[in-house]
Amino acid sequence: MKEKQSFEDDLKKLQKTVEELSSGKLTLGESIKKYEEGIKLVQGCSSLLEEAQRKVETLMKKEGKYTLEKFKGEGEK
After folding, report:
1. Is 1 domain-assigned?
2. Cβ–Cβ contacts within 10 Å for residue 41, how many?
3. Contacts of residue 55, Cβ cutoff 8 Å, sequence gap at least 6
4. Contact 10, 41 (CB under 8 A)
5. Domain count along the chain
6. What is the pLDDT of residue 1?
7. What does the radius of gyration of the chain's CA atoms come to, in whole angstroms?
8. Tens digits of per-residue pLDDT, 22-74?
9. Does residue 76 lie within any of the structural domains?
10. Domain span at 60
């Protein structure tokens, strides 16, 4: 089972992938493979950012105090 990577780790991998693609030193096959890897990393980072945004949005001010309400993820009621 793949260990869950952090946003920062995935972002560093994405930056490296972009550098490799930009270098012009990869074959067409290597470029396509790197591009696919990059798309997966972008999707993962985007998902993590969306989740963080939803958590932040649950922070609400009630009666002069900030409280964090329980976050309900996708599929939860």
Report:
1. no
2. 21
3. 71
4. yes
5. 1
6. 43
7. 18
8. 999 999 999 999 999 999 999 999 999 998 887 777 775 566 676 666 666 65
9. no
10. 7-68
pTM: 0.68
What is the signed CA dihedral for 47, 50, 54, 59, rounded to 10 degrees? Answer: 120
Report which of residues 24 and 1 the model is more confident about.
Answer: 24
The helix or strand, by DSSP H or E, that contains position 56, with its residue range, turns out to be: helix 28-57
- Backbone φ and ψ for 59, nearest 5 degrees, come out as -75, 115
CA 19 to chain centre: 19
Kindly give the residue spans of alpha helices, DSSP state H, lying in 1-27.
Answer: 7-23
Residue 28 falls within a domain, yes or no? yes
* Residue corresponding to tokens 């560093």: 12
* Cα–Cα distance for residue pair 6/13, rounded to 1 Å: 11
Q: Can you tell me which residue has the tokens 């989740």? A: 51
Residue at token pair 């945004």: 53
The residue among 1 and 16 whose pLDDT is bigger is: 16
Q: Do the domain assignments include residue 50? A: yes
